[in-house]
């Protein structure tokens, strides 16, 4: 019996953990093949590939982001291969299983919850006596009736084989995200999250975990994302793992989900002193800073301690942080969410993700939806459309904010410019992103694509439209950000360059003749005039650039417009990091 295990990933192919766990457990008894696609792949391409593999059984791993596309694949597969047995598993179908069996007539079985033992038992039963009522954790059909069997007890993790040792994965490890779990379960009870349904946390043997990680690193893994819901729930365990990864990282990057308000100071101190820059990334779910909201969703959170942790990590300059917010939680209206956004943005995360509440099957909030007058999508991803305190009109506005937040903050294309605007020209970060998002949609830009240069010209148009002050400083910062965003000297620029060739040459000669005016470091480089012509961009800025970078306005104390205050030199000759270097000199 040939078994295909597959999943449709959201954006790109990665080493899917769920189907690898199933294969590792069952491959000793069955011919199991893994294949992965994305939800962007044409359905017929996926079906054609599955057809050519000649399977007897196909198992699909289902999530909110792929369930509807997976259904399309299943319906066509059953038309061309009616004899194939279709099995679904994963979080999206593990709850309301009776609903899925009745909706999806082309599905033969659903595996609920942890799948290793259940899937293996089901395959044995399909090939054997077909007495499916003995297979705990499975839903099936009998004479047209849907039967949902009792659940199976949780697996003993020490008895599960490693899903990370398949030889066929080795050529791809360096090009994919490797998902890795050191534990299962979550200690918290957040009512919007599926993890709250499972009580308690179970750990894999730490020595086996370390051996698997070393195996992945030695075979070329570049990014390992730990899927533990709270990696730092046990201080000693987290510290031991951090020490191990620091000693053995081999250039690999590790990403974790942590709970920031329980992170112990001694762990933070250890990371600040010992973590190499760039090998760790932390994802922190803040969701809301509104205390009544957190109480209603049973989310215990000390924002003061969380802020301390995020600030200590940021000050160490060793670890990038990704903070999450959820709009639409109970009692979180537009105004309180504005405060939540500004509270969290003030912490200066490298990324701030704004998500919208999804009413996931099996969660407490979905069960209590009527209590808060929630309306939401009937099909995945079940995103809310409104509540008693957040109407759809406010959700639409926040969607606009989310769009420009991704483009102008999380992408880090013009950090100096955006920081200046939020500090000097707008009431708060929220107001900048919201006002710009409203203008963006008003221009119809959400309907068309954009190049890098478009982001600069569109921000310029918005700022000029609202008659923003000190545009000479803002445009100068935008040029600065544009230069720093290129590893090589840009072939084109988005503004009208006013310096003629004679002026530009004069500036080059001034720099070559008096390099110490820029900095001693530059003088030591031995750059010639020809080198500058080839590898540098020069711009005159009518303000003090260094003052702006340090948090000032860059304007003269009198508030006047002033004369040209800075000559900016951006050098693209490759250094050790491959990043451009910049120098300034008063003029």
Automatic annotation (TrEMBL):
Residues 1-133 form the B12-binding domain. Its cofactor is [4Fe-4S] cluster. Residues 172-411 form the Radical SAM core domain. One of its GO terms (cellular component) is cytosol. Pfam families: B12-binding, DUF4080, Radical_SAM. GO terms for molecular function: 4 iron, 4 sulfur cluster binding; catalytic activity; cobalamin binding; metal ion binding. Keywords: Iron, Iron-sulfur, Metal-binding, S-adenosyl-L-methionine. It comes from the Bacteria. SMART domains: Elp3 (SM00729). This is B12-binding domain-containing radical SAM protein. The lineage of its organism: Bacteria, Bacillati, Bacillota, Bacilli, Bacillales.
């Amino acid at each position: 019996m040939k078994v295909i295990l597959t999943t449709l990933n959201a954006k790109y192919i990665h080493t899917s953990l769920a189907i690898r766990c199933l294969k590792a457990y069952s491959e000793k008894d069955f011919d199991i093949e893994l294949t992965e696609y994305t939800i962007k792949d044409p359905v017929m391409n996926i079906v054609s590939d599955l057809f050519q593999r000649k399977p007897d059984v196909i198992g699909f791993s289902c999530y909110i982001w792929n369930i509807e596309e997976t259904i399309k694949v299943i319906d066509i597969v059953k038309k061309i291969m009616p004899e194939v047995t279709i099995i679904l598993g994963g979080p999206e179908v593990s709850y309301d299983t009776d609903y899925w069996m009745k909706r999806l007539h082309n599905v033969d079985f659903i595996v609920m919850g942890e799948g290793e033992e259940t899937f293996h038992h089901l395959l044995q039963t399909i090939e054997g006596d077909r007495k499916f009522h003995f297979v705990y954790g499975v839903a099936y059909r009998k004479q047209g009736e849907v039967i949902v069997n009792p659940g199976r007890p949780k697996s003993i993790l020490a008895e599960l084989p490693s899903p990370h040792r398949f030889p066929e994965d080795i050529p791809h490890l360096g090009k994919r995200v490797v998902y890795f779990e050191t534990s299962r379960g979550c200690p918290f009870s957040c009512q919007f999250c599926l993890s709250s349904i499972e009580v308690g946390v179970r750990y894999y043997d730490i020595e086996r975990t370390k051996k698997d990680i070393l195996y992945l690193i030695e075979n070329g893994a570049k990014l390992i994302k730990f899927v533990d819901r709270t990696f730092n729930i046990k201080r000693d365990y987290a510290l031991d793992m951090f020490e191990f990864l620091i000693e053995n990282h081999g250039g690999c990057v590790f990403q974790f989900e942590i709970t920031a308000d329980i992170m112990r100071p001694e762990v933070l101190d250890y990371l600040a002193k010992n973590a190499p820059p760039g090998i760790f990334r932390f994802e922190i779910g803040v969701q809301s800073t509104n205390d009544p909201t957190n109480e209603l969703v049973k989310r215990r959170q000390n924002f003061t301690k969380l802020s301390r942790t995020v600030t200590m990590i940021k000050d160490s300059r060793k670890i990038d942080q990704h903070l999450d917010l959820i709009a639409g939680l109970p009692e979180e209206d537009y105004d309180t969410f504005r405060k939540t956004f500004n509270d969290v943005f003030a912490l200066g995360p490298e990324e701030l993700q704004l998500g919208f509440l999804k009413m996931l099957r099996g969660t407490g909030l979905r069960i209590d939806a009527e209590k808060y007058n929630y309306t939401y999508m009937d099909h995945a991803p079940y995103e809310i459309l409104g509540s008693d305190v957040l109407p759809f009109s406010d959700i639409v506005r926040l969607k606009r904010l989310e769009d420009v937040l991704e483009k102008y903050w999380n992408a880090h294309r013009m950090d100096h410019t955006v920081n200046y605007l939020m500090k000097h020209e707008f009431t708060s970060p929220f107001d900048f992103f919201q006002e710009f998002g409203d203008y963006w949609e008003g221009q119809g830009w959400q309907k068309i694509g954009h190049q890098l240069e478009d982001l600069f010209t569109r921000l310029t148009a918005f700022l000029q439209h609202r008659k923003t002050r000190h545009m000479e400083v803002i445009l100068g910062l935008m040029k600065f950000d544009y230069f720093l965003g290129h590893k090589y000297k840009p072939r084109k620029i988005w503004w009208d360059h006013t310096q003629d060739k004679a002026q530009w040459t004069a500036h080059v000669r001034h720099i070559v003749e008096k390099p110490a005016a820029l900095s001693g470091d530059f003088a030591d480089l031995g750059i010639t005039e020809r080198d500058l012509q080839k590898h540098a961009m020069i711009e005159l800025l009518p303000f003090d650039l260094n003052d702006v970078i340090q948090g000032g306005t860059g304007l003269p104390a009198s508030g006047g417009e002033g004369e040209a205050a800075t000559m900016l030199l951006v050098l693209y000759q490759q250094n050790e990091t491959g990043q451009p270097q910049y120098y300034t000199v008063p003029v």
